[in-house]
Amino acid sequence: xxxxxxxxxxxxxxxxxxxxxxxxxxxxxxxxxxxxxxxxxxxxxxxxxxxxxxxxxxxxxxxxxxxxxxxxxxxxxxxxxxxxxxxxxxxxxxxxxxxxxxxxxxxxxxxxxxxxxxxxxxxxxxxxxxxxxxxxxxxxxxxxxxxxxxxxxxxxxxxxxxxxxxxxxxxxxxxxxxxxxxxxxxxxxxxxxxxxxxxxxxxxxxxxxxxxxxxxxxxxxxxxxxxxxxxxxxxxxxxxxxxxxxxxxxxxxxxxxxxxxxxxxxxxxxxxxxxxxxxxxxxxxxxxxxxxxxxxxxxxxxxxxxxxxxxxxxxxxxxxxxxxxxxxxxxxxxxxxxxxxxxxxxxxxxxxxxxxxxxxxxxxxxxxxxxxxxxxxxxxxxxxxxxxxxxxxxxxxxxxxxxxxxxxxxxxxxxxxxxxxxxxxxxxxxxxxxxxxxxxxxxxxxxxxxxxxxxxxxxxxxxxxxxxxxxxxxxxxxxxxxxxxxxxxxxxxxxxxxxxxxxxxxxxxxxxxxxx
Amino acid sequence: xxxxxxxxxxxxxxxxxxxxxxxxxxxxxxxxxxxxxxxxxxxxxxxxxxxxxxxxxxxxxxxxxxxxxxxxxxxxxxxxxxxxxxxxxxxxxxxxxxxxxxxxxxxxxxxxxxxxxxxxxxxxxxxxxxxxxxxxxxxxxxxxxxxxxxxxxxxxxxxxxxxxxxxxxxxxxxxxxxxxxxxxxxxxxxxxxxxxxxxxxxxxxxxxxxxxxxxxxxxxxxxxxxxxxxxxxxxxxxxxxxxxxxxxxxxxxxxxxxxxxxxxxxxxxxxxxxxxxxxxxxxxxxxxxxxxxxxxxxxxxxxxxxxxxxxxxxxxxxxxxxxxxxxxxxxxxxxxxxxxxxxxxxxxxxxxxxxxxxxxxxxxxxxxxxxxxxxxxxxxxxxxxxxxxxxxxxxxxxxxxxxxxxxxxxxxxxxxxxxxxx
Lengths: 516, 422
Prior knowledge:
The complex is a heterodimer. By secondary structure, chain A is mostly helical. Helix content of chain A is about 65%, strand content about 0%. The two termini of chain B are about 20 Å apart.
């Protein structure tokens, strides 16, 4: 059952080879060229193209490996000066590389789903549908195979790490997480959860009542962990430290010049903040509170600085503090409920949420950091299934502006609907068998208010597609549809975040568990 | 190269801009040599509707004469959406109707999902419809709906739907004989003379009414009527085209039939052999008209027509594959095997569609000799509009064009040719 599904979905992905590609395609081609044709000490200094290498070294080595195969497809793509080179063989190779590396994701999903099945009891009913929900995740397929990224591969490694933790093979989990960090440093956001879990549940042990035994701090385990992590980092950063390039690498990895929000605001707290600022500015202008000198600059096009007009401007330090404050409660909760890997997964989700809501220059693609681990939890408690349904629908919808070409519209709508319908059907069958349907029909597992909100996505979508040009507002307010999507989805994400936080903090032990 | 996509777009242009009686007639406005209408009137009406929408969206899609060869990003999306609309409105509901009908007759299996899924997912259909570009899903949808009605015992409705299918594409004649014998058998099984007459009259009237309504604009003038019929059944086109998996094409490897026998005699031979091969299954169906026998006879009938008849396209394998979907549960292995074979048999056509506009003369029929894509460079083209250039070429090649099925050309002056070479 597992392999036919993987191959079938891979065939569907192959159909997307000629679809729209974003600049990320050129980014990765450039990195193939850099790692193949230049010596290692120039990788982080090269800037012929504007898309400089800004992922950690292990990813660069991954591209180096891919370049070895790419040479057989079309050697010309490996020339650094061939900017925007996109011959047919180049496209074929890059797309195939994503499809093939997705097998890592398939494996990660498989072992995680098996762990979920083990904890739920009803194996077959849970494992296979959940695997389809995770591996066939519409948003991930759209982003990876149209927009072009390697998210599947990375989340596969994350799932691998989580699964090893669930299987109580902690050292392997630590190894895979270090590898993950060295592939893409965005996963630093979930590192606190790992840290707290390892400290409390691995290095320390508890009394039968659940209190910490401080004396039981196991130096041996700590050292084992440390050696694993340091080895991986050493192998990854080693060559650059030896050449004294560490500063340059770190500078490339953490560019803080970019604005608070991307050109299209990811639906997080700052999107709502920006919107409130705009509203206040508009109202203030009308009411005469403001002088014209306080006008905010819009982020049009690529990333630029964004100064708020009315509300205080946000700097990177503020976002960092906000993120830390938002994840402290869940970390404290994790500390208090030790030796439970599922609590760890919940903390993972909340760390992902916190970083999405308050991070600096968050991409809308970061929503996967929330949705995918939540997918592992949706079979555990009913509230988690509810939050997963909302996040699935809102999160994937918020990705739509990434694919703005009209040929991709039917693809994205169809994939989104298919996945949303399948997810809700699976979760409905799992959680609500034999219930009487409520008087007013609603989306499974959602309350009436939530259903109304989710249905409201349809008018938003239609407005962005048709309404805006029909009302002739394209020149006056070109960013209105995108802002509308950001704000509307931002409300949904905020609601889901608070709902889930409330659940984790207060109700974990008393939550409605699936009876078997 | 210009192919069925351009043909469909051209038909929208013709039907929207010209009055009904001129759709099938050769005139200065309607050059039948350039993808003239050669499907029955229902296709023409459908093209008219699509053309109206196209004109609303962007008049240059269907501007008379000027829009030849028009292909743009938005236009492609529009055309593909039209196929999707037909799928949504006709084909998928018909497949669902079949699912319900089959589930309700004995042997009662809960849901005949396999047939439904194979109907919906058969790759050949959507590759040809969305890729090569046709509207097979309309005629096949009507056909499946007709079979569903016949299975449920709704003979009049079934006949009406089949007439609609037939009036959409004349290739549905492949399925006509089994349906005819099934209905005849049903009538004979009525038990009494009065019942027999009553049933035959009912079915006869519904068929005649359907045809009458659809053909009404063309019935007023015998010349127009004959022209339409002539367009639907062109005998000049030759025994077969490209490499198609029919009996005659296969035999031609050993015996060069095209050289030995001329077209009219060959047509007669094909007709006779088809009729002879159809006799056994038709008689069997007539004697015992049950839904199961109907479905099997449909498969048999379409196979015979595909293998034996005159001028078969590779696409006609769809007319065999869809009835095969209807017997999926009874013969899963054979049907699956046949699906794979049918898709492979269409491979040359599908590979061809990936080609970009070719330069120079290319005989894309690989020897069977019927499709050409040509670049003509001549100083005589200077100063002449596109239509006149095409007419010049057509005038020179008048005799040859009678036997060529697909002919597309680019006409350039020597200066334009030089510019293109750079």
